[in-house]
Design goal:
about 300 residues, alpha/beta, eight-stranded mixed sheet
Length: about 300
C-alpha cells in the first residue's frame, strides 16, 4: 500500500468511526424512549418533574395485567391538606398526540392562580399519561387498553386515594387535540361518570385524512374507527347526555381542525345537546392561544361546573 493509499485509508476510517460514534450517540439519546415504547413502559412517564404544584403519582393498572403500573400527575388545591373533611371535584385532563402528562402544566398553573385568588372553587386536577397517537381507545389488537386503564384503573384509584367528590357532578374530563378526541369519546361514552365534558380543538378528522400512525391503533379499520369515535358515541348516548351533561367545544379560527369541529358542533345541535361552542379569533392549534385569545376568562367555566 502506497503512502497516499495509507493516508486515504486512515481518513476514510476516521470518518467512518466518527459517523459510527455519532450514530451511537443518537441511538443512546433515542434508545430509552424507543425501548420503553416497545416494552410498554410508555405508560409510566420517565420525567418525574412535578410542575405547578402537582405531584407524580403511580397507580396499579390491572387492565394491562397483574403487577403493572401507570403514572399521572395530580394537582391538589391549596387548602387540600387543611380542609380535612372537605371533598373536591376532579378534572381529568388528556394531553395531545405525542405528548405526556407534563403537557397540562401550563393550564394547572393558571387554575392554581385563580383558585388562590378565590376566582375558582378548589378542585383536583389529574393530568393523565396517555400513549402517543392512541386516541384514548382500547387498540383493536388489544395490546394498549388505554380506555380501560383510565376508566377501570385510574379513576377508582384517584377516588380511593384522595378526598374526591366521586359523583358525575363532581367529575369532569377535558382534552386538547388528541386529548379532545379522547375527552369527547370517554365523556360521552360514560355519562354516568362525567358531568362535564370539554373538547379543545379536538382532532376529529375522518380516518382517511389521518396518517397511518393514527389509524394503526384502530387496525386501519373504518368500522372500528366509527365504533370508537366521538361521532357515533354521542349519537348512541344522546338521551343520557341531553340535559344532564355540561359540554363545551372550542377551536381557533386559524386551526386546520376548524371545519370538523364546527361540524361536530352542528351534530350536537341536531341532537338537541346543549353546549357552549366558540371559535377563538387568532388562535392556532394551541391550547394556550385558545384560552389567552378568548375575549373572556375561559377558566371560569370550571366555576360553573364545580359550584354545587
Amino acid at each position: 500500500m502506497t503512502n497516499s493509499q495509507k493516508i486515504s485509508f486512515l481518513l476514510h476510517s476516521g470518518l467512518l468511526l466518527l459517523c459510527l460514534s455519532l450514530c451511537i450517540g443518537v441511538a443512546s439519546a433515542q434508545g430509552p424512549d424507543r425501548d420503553s415504547m416497545h416494552h410498554g413502559n410508555e405508560w409510566i412517564a420517565t420525567n418525574h418533574s412535578e410542575p405547578a404544584g402537582t405531584h407524580y403519582h403511580l397507580f396499579a393498572s390491572p387492565s394491562r395485567g397483574a403487577g403493572t403500573q401507570a403514572s399521572c400527575l395530580v394537582y391538589l388545591p391549596p387548602n387540600y391538606e387543611k380542609a380535612t373533611t372537605q371533598r373536591f371535584p376532579v378534572l381529568y385532563w388528556l394531553h395531545g398526540g405525542a405528548g405526556s402528562q407534563m403537557e397540562g402544566a401550563w393550564m394547572v398553573q393558571h387554575i392554581d392562580a385563580e383558585i388562590r385568588a378565590d376566582k375558582l372553587p378548589p378542585f383536583i386536577v389529574v393530568l393523565v399519561q396517555g400513549l402517543p397517537d392512541v386516541r384514548y381507545i382500547n387498540t383493536k389488537d388489544g395490546t394498549r387498553p388505554v380506555e380501560d386503564v383510565i376508566i377501570r384503573d385510574l379513576i377508582p384509584n384517584i377516588d380511593a386515594t384522595y378526598r374526591t367528590m366521586a359523583t358525575r357532578q363532581g367529575r369532569a374530563i377535558e382534552g386538547m387535540s388528541m386529548g379532545g378526541f379522547g375527552a369527547l369519546r370517554l365523556g360521552f361514552k360514560y355519562p354516568q361518570l362525567f358531568g362535564t365534558v370539554s373538547g379543545l380543538a379536538p382532532s376529529i378528522k375522518p380516518m382517511q385524512e389521518e396518517p397511518m400512525v393514527v389509524r394503526e391503533p384502530f387496525g386501519n379499520d373504518q368500522a372500528y374507527w366509527d365504533e370508537n369515535g366521538p361521532w357515533n358515541i354521542v349519537k348512541q348516548h344522546a338521551g343520557e347526555i341531553r340535559g344532564h351533561t355540561r359540554v363545551r367545544l372550542f377551536v381557533g379560527d386559524q386551526d386546520p381542525l376548524l371545519k370538523p369541529v364546527t361540524e361536530y358542533h352542528e351534530l350536537l345541535t341536531s341532537l338537541a345537546i346543549e353546549h357552549q361552542f366558540k371559535v377563538i379569533a387568532g388562535a392556532h392549534h394551541r391550547y394556550d392561544e385558545i384560552l389567552s385569545k378568548s375575549t373572556v376568562d375561559e377558566l371560569q367555566f370550571w366555576k360553573t361546573a364545580f359550584t354545587q
